[in-house]
């Protein structure tokens, strides 16, 4: 019998093998200072493009005041216990009612965390006779939720309507045999590529196939739609989404999440979501803070309008300068370049050290080998100066990538690692 840890000693994984060179800089970096368009990294000011504070609410004066007063009033513990036992309050109910109204659903239920919330929602919605159909590029929380499923599940090619219909047909055939149903899962906005899920086309398929639609709209809530109610509102199909999920960790700049649906569905879920039944309730200070953030979203679209002014300036500037930003239809702004992992590390170091630009780097195995993805998150707090400086920096690093400068710089790293 092998030692359980033998595989860990032998193989650190595709990212783990770079830990000695990457940790503390490329992964697990430490940004310092107040959440803003400009923060500090290793003592230097950098323009930050990796913070999901879309609407700039993290340090909004009204929000900060509400957060501070809530902590003074409630502390960081209240209420203690799970919602079903001792963690339920009138403010939780108020937040749920206001969220349901905002996203045009009958009912809503507040969750303590987004990741475990969507995972548990999937688990509660399906049984062993049911079939799940989901996008191959789904977020890890969806994939982990699907892993809990004891029945059949099928992935479809990313946003590919032919593949969607093919897998719906397969799922429906199996569900007819097992006596189960079909759960279709899409994201409102895919957080890596920035593309919206094809919700309008998907709901049209309800005329042909029998399925229920769950949408994870973590990146769409607050940023898309006339009022900011998300991708469903943006595409005019919010009423056709059977279960709507969003997190407070993006536009709301906080912790927590919620699901919204018909009242009967929410009533079922709140009695069957294991991640909520057996975990501590969302703290009151966060509930009050969420109420203030939602108030600001409902009061005006100024935050969203400023965000999109910056999004359009950044994305149009990148395209005008010949950069490949894929087919994003959201605030998420991916920049695709060609190069190896060591070249990517040299490139990002140049960006941070010599240009004062901090953005997330994504490489294999998250994306195919030979590609480098610089993932940028514009916010309402960024300025036109930030954008102009970033565009100039990106032009400079692209030239160095193409002329082989980063390849030469990366060779020493490769030799050091014995590659």
UniProtKB/TrEMBL annotation:
Residues 45-393 form the Aminotransferase class I/classII large domain. Keywords: Aminotransferase, Hydrolase, Protease, Transferase. The keyword Secreted does not apply. The keyword Transferase applies. InterPro entries: Aminotransferase_I/II_large (IPR004839), AON_synthase_class-II (IPR050087), PyrdxlP-dep_Trfase (IPR015424), PyrdxlP-dep_Trfase_major (IPR015421), PyrdxlP-dep_Trfase_small (IPR015422). This is Aminotransferase class I/II-fold pyridoxal phosphate-dependent enzyme. Its cofactor is pyridoxal 5'-phosphate. GO terms for molecular function: peptidase activity; transaminase activity. It comes from the Bacteria. Pfam families: Aminotran_1_2 (PF00155). It comes from Psychroflexus lacisalsi. GO terms for biological process: proteolysis.
């Amino acid at each position: 019998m092998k030692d359980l840890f033998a595989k860990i000693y032998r193989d650190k994984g595709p990212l783990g093998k770079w830990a000695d060179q990457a940790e503390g800089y490329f992964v697990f970096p430490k940004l310092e200072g107040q959440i803003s368009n400009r923060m500090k990294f290793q003592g230097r000011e950098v323009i930050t493009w990796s913070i999901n504070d879309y609407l700039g609410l993290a340090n909004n004066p009204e929000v900060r005041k509400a957060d501070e007063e809530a902590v003074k009033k409630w502390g960081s513990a209240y209420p203690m216990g799970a919602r079903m036992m001792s963690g339920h309050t009138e403010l939780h109910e108020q937040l749920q009612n206001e969220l349901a109204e905002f996203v045009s659903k009958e009912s809503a239920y507040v969750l303590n965390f987004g990741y475990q919330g969507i995972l548990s929602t999937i688990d509660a919605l399906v049984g062993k006779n049911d079939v799940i159909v989901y996008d191959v590029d789904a977020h890890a929380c969806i994939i982990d939720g699907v892993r809990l499923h004891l029945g059949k599940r099928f992935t479809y090619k990313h946003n590919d309507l032919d593949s969607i219909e093919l897998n719906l047909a397969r799922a429906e055939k199996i569900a007819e045999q097992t006596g189960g149903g079909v759960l279709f899962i899409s994201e409102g906005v895919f957080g890596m590529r920035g593309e919206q899920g094809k919700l309008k086309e998907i709901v049209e398929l309800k005329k042909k196939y029998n399925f229920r639609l769950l949408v994870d709209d973590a990146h769409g809530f607050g940023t898309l739609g006339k009022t900011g109610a998300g991708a469903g509102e943006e595409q005019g199909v919010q009423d056709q989404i059977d279960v709507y999920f969003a997190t407070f960790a993006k536009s709301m700049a906080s912790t927590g999440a919620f699901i919204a649906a018909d009242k009967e569905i929410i009533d079922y879920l709140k009695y069957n979501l294991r991640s909520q039944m057996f975990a501590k309730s969302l703290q009151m200070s966060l509930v009050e803070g969420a109420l203030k953030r939602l108030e600001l979203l409902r009061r005006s679209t100024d935050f969203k309008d400023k965000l999109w002014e910056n999004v359009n300036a950044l994305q149009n500037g990148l395209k005008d300068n010949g950069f490949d930003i894929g087919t994003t239809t959201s605030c998420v702004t991916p920049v695709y370049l060609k190069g190896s992992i060591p070249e990517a590390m040299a490139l990002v170091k140049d960006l941070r050290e010599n240009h004062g630009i901090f953005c997330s780097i994504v490489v294999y195995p998250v994306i195919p080998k030979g590609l480098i993805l610089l993932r940028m998150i514009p916010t309402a707090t960024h300025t036109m100066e930030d954008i102009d400086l970033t565009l100039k920096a990106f032009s400079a690093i692209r030239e160095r990538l193409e002329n082989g400068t980063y390849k030469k710089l990366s060779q020493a790293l490769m030799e050091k690692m014995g590659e």
